[in-house]
Design brief:
The chain folds into two domains: 1-61, no CATH class; 62-248, no CATH class. By secondary structure, the chain is mostly helical. It has helices at residues 9-29, 34-61, 64-86, 93-117, 125-156, 158-166, 171-174, 176-196, 204-211, 216-248. Helices cover 79% and strands 0% of the residues. Helix 1 runs antiparallel to helix 2 (34-61) and helix 5 (125-156) packs across helix 8 (176-196).
């Protein structure tokens, strides 16, 4: 297998040409997405270049505290983004989001590192950082989808929930249907991806390893690892986030808070 072909500054400028074409198409179709495309492209470019330099330093330091600091920063950002996608005004939402992301991601990450990958050092940045980043990103998306769905369902069906409570149902029973649907909503993206992976789509980790010169079978093995890890992380995060959100709607007397 050949080594990865490096992309220089000129290549990155040519990459921006694709965004230019997308902006031109938006103008042609009058989609009014030009500012969002330009802003998104600029922000992505700056963030990816910045993280490239930061990780280069972390890999050079090669110590556990630097790796933990990067993971902590990534988790903090994921927590804030998830909260903002759901509802910043909901009381106690930030700790709930933080708990769901930390518990789900770290449990799965520990499972992978300790039982499967087994690097020489648990804090090996080559494995820990990219694996954690994929888990954090997917847990963030699933938690925000599930949390937002449950929040809207409860707000839109208050009368029905109160009727169940009046008939003797517990809060958990009264919102059980909405909670299940919220969890299912959060898992839809990864479930859809599992059906077509390898047939229609080639995931980022698989593609990246192939471009880096890895054996296709090794790349496929790692993609299986991360795909199944994402499934576990997402289902744990959606269960925890919906559990925390539904409890915030009820007081100690099991009454629906207005």
């Amino acid at each position: 297998m050949n080594n990865l072909i490096s992309l220089d500054t000129i290549d990155l400028v040519l990459c921006l040409g694709m965004i230019g074409i997308a902006i031109a198409l938006s103008l042609w179709q009058k989609l009014a997405l030009e500012k969002q495309l330009a802003y998104g492209a600029l922000r992505s470019l700056m963030q990816l270049i910045a993280i490239g330099y930061i990780l280069d330093v972390v890999f050079t330091i090669d110590d556990w505290w630097a790796v933990v600091a990067i993971l902590g920063l990534m988790l903090a950002i994921a927590t804030i983004v998830t909260r903002n996608r759901i509802d910043q005004k909901l009381k106690g939402l930030l700790p709930t989001v933080a708990l769901s992301l930390v518990a789900s991601s770290l449990f799965t990450l520990a499972y992978m590192i300790i039982l499967i990958v087994q690097p020489d050092r648990w804090h090996e940045p080559q494995y820990l950082i990219p694996l954690a980043g994929m888990l954090f990103g997917n847990a963030m998306n699933s938690a925000s989808l599930a949390g937002d769905r449950l929040l809207n369902s409860i707000n839109q069906n208050r009368l029905e929930i109160e009727t169940h409570l009046c008939l003797g149902a517990t809060p958990a029973q009264a919102i059980a249907t909405y909670k299940k649907e919220a969890i299912r909503t959060g898992l839809i993206p990864i479930l859809n991806n599992m059906v077509v992976v390898g047939l229609v789509s080639l995931p980022g980790m698989f593609t990246g390893q192939i471009l880096g010169g890895s054996n296709p079978l090794d790349a496929a093995s790692y993609q299986i690892l991360i795909l199944f890890a994402i499934v576990l992380t997402n289902i744990i995060s959606t269960i925890l986030i919906t559990q925390g959100i539904y409890k915030s709607f009820f007081n100690q007397d099991d009454q629906l808070i207005s």
